Amino acid sequence: DKGYIVITETKKHRSQRTLIPERAIMISKVHKSFKNWIDHWRPKVENQYSGDALYLWPNGKPVTVRVLGQKLSKHGKEIWQYFQPYDMRHWCAVARLIKTKVETGRFDTYMVKNWLGHERITTTENYIRYAEQYYNQLPEDWIALALKPKKGVGKRGIKKLIKEKTNRTRFSGLLTKFSPVGADGPARI
User: Which of 134, 35, 51 has its CA nearest to residue 90?
Assistant: First the structure.
């Protein structure tokens, strides 16, 4: 019913870790969920080259990390010129810390460490100062906000956003001068 994802980390000698993402990411009928992907799109292109890869090209071959990074970078820069795929990982770390604060009243670095696959807790702790700044500005679950369908924004709205090449993000109007994100983009850790 809920589902889980097993990630094989090639840079860590193919070690595996299991994640249980939010329900909307796994099985939602109104979002681009893993279930919709696996049930409806993947079978259309799957072939002898596919293996157990989740993401496939139209020719059925697996999407490689390198090429995925290139595509994400290209499309991300259409919206924000400084974008790098790793920025999504930073956002995930901060958003997960905020989520734990909203749910438990404290930043659960151990949970986020495991989610991100960090070997040392100190790596995860580096994100706390950013999570505190963001939490003080908007003490809500940022992941739930990001997954919440926004009314009136379909393909036309996204295309308009890309055409304008704006530097604004979904949350930029909420951020003050004390934020690690501004016109120059996310802070580096």
Answer: 134
| Paired sense of beta strands 5-9 and 15-19, if any | antiparallel
What number of other Cβ atoms are within 10 A of residue 63's Cβ? 13
pTM for this model (two decimals) = 0.65
Strand ranges, E, within the chain: 5-9, 15-19
- Give the model confidence (pLDDT) of 157-174 as tens digits: 545 544 554 444 444 444
pLDDT beyond 80 at 105: yes
Backbone angles phi, psi at 2, to 5 degrees: -85, -45
CA nearest neighbour of 187 among 118, 127, 135: 127
Q: Is 81 left (phi over 0), alpha (psi -120 to 50) or beta?
A: alpha
Phi, psi of 182 (to 5 degrees): -150, -150
Element (H, E) at 73: helix 65-79
DSSP state of 162: H
163 and 156 Cβ atoms separated by less than 8 Å: no
Return the structure tokens found at 166.
């704006």
Residue 113 sits at φ, ψ, to 5 deg, of: -55, -45
CB distance 54 to 61 below 8 Å:
no
User: For residues 73 and 83, is the Cβ–Cβ distance under 8 A?
Assistant: yes
Residues 110, 97: contact at Cβ < 8 Å?
no
